[in-house]
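Teaching assistant's notes for section 4

Start the section by putting this record on the projector. Ask students to predict, before seeing the second block, whether aminopyrimidine aminohydrolase will look compact or extended. Collect guesses on the board.
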Amino acid sequence: MERKDEAEEAKSKVSVIETWLRKHRLLYVGATRHPFIHSIRDGSVDVSSFKRWLEQDYIFVRAFVPFVATVLLKAWKESFDATDLDVILSGMASLNDEFAWFNKEASKWGVSLTNVAPQKANLDYCRFLESLMSSEVEYTVAITAFWAIETVYQDSFAHCLEDGSNTPEELRDTCQRWGNDGFGRYCHALQSIAEHHLEKASDDVRKRTEAAVLDVLEYEVAFWNMSQGDT
Ligand SMILES: Cc1ncc(CO)c(N)n1
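Reveal the predicted structure now:
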C-alpha cells in the first residue's frame, strides 16, 4: 500500500524544469514564438532577415561546439550514468553534419559564411557560452543550459512545421533541421538528464541553474531580434 502511494506521488510530482517553464511561461513563449518565427510560419519572412539569421547562427554554432565539448567533459567527470555521455556525443555528431548543412544552405541563398562580422547580440550570447565553459560551472548548470539552448530551436522550428503553417518551401529544410521528431527526442533525452541532476542538486546549484536558463531565454530573444534587424 505504501509503495503504491509513493508511486502515485512520483507520478503526480511536477518536475523542476516543468515548474520553471510554468513560472517563466511568458519568457519561454517569447523565445519560442518570436515574431521572426511567426514570419517563417506565415510565409511573410523577409529574405534579408533570414540570410542575416543564417550568417549569424553559423558563427554561434562555431562557438557552441567548444561549449558542448566542455559539457561532455563534465559529464565524463561528474556523472555516473553512461547514457549522459552517449546523448551529448550524439549532439556533437549532429553538429558536425550541421556545418555541412550551413555550407549547403549558404550557397543556396548566395550567402558567404566567411568574413561575417558577429553582431552584438551574437557576441553577447557567445560570451555567455564561454562563461559556461569554465570548469567552475557545475555539470548540472551546463547540461541544463545546453537543454534550454537546443529546446528553444526545437520548439520554435517545430511550430513552423505544424498543420496549418504556411512555411515557404525553401525554408522547410531549415525548420526540419531543428523541428524534426528525432531532434525532439534528443531534446527530451537532454531534459531527462538535466532533471535527474537537478533533483539531486543543492538549492544553490538549482538557483544558479534557473538563472542560467533565464539567461538563455533572454539571449535567444535578443538573437531573433537581431535577425530581424531590430537591434
Ligand atoms: C542562437 C541559437 N540557439 C540555439 C541553437 C540550437 O543549436 C542555434 N543553432 N542557435
